[in-house]
């Protein structure tokens, strides 16, 4: 059976080529992608291409574009066996995280990929990333999709989208999933860690939840910073604090007083770690107990990108029962380890 894959091109380096008159990178007509990569015709799947009307640099991608992508997948969910999203690399982890929450009950592959070099460059990584992503997006066993989640494929590795972060602007191997195993690797064969693959409940129907809020603020704590600015911040529904190590912050009375005022304002405080690997453990050190005393929420081993998009998705979302704290602390789609 020939599987059908919908390829959504949003923009980014993978869809660029050099203008030899100016030397600048410009988008090419993505409808001609089969001419750029004729090997695509050798893949045993039927590929339909849907490019954004205006390709976007990934720095311009945000909630409105996430809604467009999620909505388009929802409209075409029954017509395709898998979905491949071509995306700029700088914010791909944010988009993958957001989509993982918006595409509820997902039982088909949604793969994001991009490249560090344009598709026409001699040493480009674009062709391998695109071709192997197509394989992953169309791979079924016993009439069931092998991948049933939002994933990022880059440089021979398949990673859970909401566990992924970009760690290099220089190397082809640009993405890591430090707190979760690699889902699959591409070599002579496509290999999977089947125990690591996400599976939603069989009785959970697929739906698209486009709810996103902009009332989130992310603040990185650093040594010697003043707390004077915090009381004059506009009231936000959620403040995400990126703190030291496993959850510590400077222990002055001013710090606790300021954070209590923010909480009294009705703002939820989520705590995530500045460390790439590991996560938050309230009570491990004395200087983390302040967060327990003020009723902050531990982000456990969640990435900063996923903490932001998860908060945006949960704030005042009528499709969830329980409090924001209860829902944020729950592992919704494989994004965090609950008992970290």
From TrEMBL:
Domain of life (superkingdom): Bacteria
Any one Gene Ontology molecular-function term assigned to this protein's record: asparaginase activity
Boundaries of every L-asparaginase N-terminal domain copy: 4-195
Residues annotated as binding substrate: 58, 89-90
Keywords from the UniProt entry: Hydrolase
Broad class of enzyme this protein falls into: hydrolase
Keyword Hydrolase: yes
The keyword Hydrolase is annotated on this UniProt entry: yes
Enzyme nomenclature, EC number: 3.5.1.1
Entry protein name: L-asparaginase 1
Organism: Chryseobacterium taklimakanense
Gene behind the chain: ansA
């Amino acid at each position: 059976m020939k599987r059908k894959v919908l390829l959504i091109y949003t923009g980014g380096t993978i869809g660029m080529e050099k203008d030899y008159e100016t030397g600048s990178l410009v988008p090419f007509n993505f409808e001609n992608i089969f001419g750029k990569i004729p090997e695509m015709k050798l893949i045993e799947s039927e590929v339909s291409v849907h490019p954004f009307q205006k390709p976007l640099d990934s720095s311009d991608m945000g909630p409105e574009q996430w809604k467009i992508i999620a909505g388009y997948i929802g409209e075409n969910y029954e017509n395709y066996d898998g979905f491949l999203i071509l995306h700029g690399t700088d914010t791909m982890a944010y988009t993958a995280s957001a989509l993982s929450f918006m595409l509820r009950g997902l039982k088909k592959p949604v793969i994001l990929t991009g490249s560090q070099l344009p598709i026409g460059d001699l040493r480009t990584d674009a062709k391998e990333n695109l071709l192997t992503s197509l394989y992953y997006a169309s791979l079924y066993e016993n009439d069931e999709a092998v991948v049933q989640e939002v994933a990022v494929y880059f440089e021979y590795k398949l990673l859970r989208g909401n566990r992924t972060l970009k760690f290099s602007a220089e190397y082809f191997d640009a993405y890591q999933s430090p707190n979760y195993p690699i889902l699959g690797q591409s070599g002579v064969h496509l290999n999977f860690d089947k125990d690591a693959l996400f599976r939603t409940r069989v009785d959970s129907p697929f739906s698209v939840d486009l709810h996103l809020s902009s009332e989130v603020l992310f603040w990185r704590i650093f040594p010697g910073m003043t707390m004077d600015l915090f009381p004059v911040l506009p009231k936000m529904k959620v403040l995400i604090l990126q703190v030291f190590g496993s959850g510590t912050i400077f222990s002055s009375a001013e710090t606790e007083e300021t954070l209590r005022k923010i909480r009294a304002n009705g703002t939820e405080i989520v705590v995530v770690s500045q460390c790439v690997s590991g996560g938050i453990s309230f009570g491990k050190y004395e200087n983390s107990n302040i967060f327990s005393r003020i009723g902050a929420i531990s982000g456990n081993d969640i990435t900063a990108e996923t903490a932001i998009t998860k908060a945006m998705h949960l704030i005042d979302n009528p499709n969830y029962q329980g409090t924001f704290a209860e829902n944020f602390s729950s592992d919704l789609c494989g994004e965090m380890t609950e008992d970290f």
